[in-house]
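Sequence only, no structure available. Ideas?
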Amino acid sequence: MLTMRQKTAAAGLLAAVAFSVTGCSSDSGGGSANDKIKGAGSEESASASPSASASASAAAEKNAPTFAFPSDIKAKVERDPAADAVKDAVLRDVAYSAQARLEAFSKGTGQTANMNRYFAASALTYWTERVTTVKKDGLTVSGEYRFYGFEVTDVANGKTAAVRYCEDQSKGYSKEIKTQKVLHTNPSDQDFILYTLQAAKDSAGDWQVQRQSWKKGDASCVHG
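Reply:
I predicted one. Tokens follow.
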């Protein structure tokens, strides 16, 4: 039987994979816990020459992260390549960050290689704490999570960027770790979440999410 604390946590889990009950402010993947899922999106830039584009794509693919999700979790990323090479790299890494966050909740730890690669500063601290709290409440994630509507709204000096994207959690649920019971909920507009964030390029060339906020039920994301 769920305690009152668990019920409260379960109600908040679906708010954002994210589990944003309190604010800090198309490739698909899924399979067994041993499956490794390559990152989403095309690395090809319309502004580059064919040879340069091919070289950049090959390099990005070689350096792409892998994600290990349990068999009951599916992450679906829908991202079109940007014509600008910098913006395309930003969107690629932000899409990776969304998958890294989902992976962290499924593993019950925010200190994963992918979280440390694609999150930094207050965003990394916040999500690490949230993952820990959710695990202590005896809960994890299950179901399908869709990430879409990726857009760079600003880039400064090729080093910092503002980005937005949407997440559909209408088929995503919290799950009791001990009993493996999936806590199904009725779909609503609150399952669609708009994320806005600030990212910065690190010394390794990866774009890391440093600050992030969200809005549930945003009209631009609902049923998108």
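Helices lie at 4-13, 50-62, 85-107, 113-118, 121-136.
Hope that gets you unstuck.
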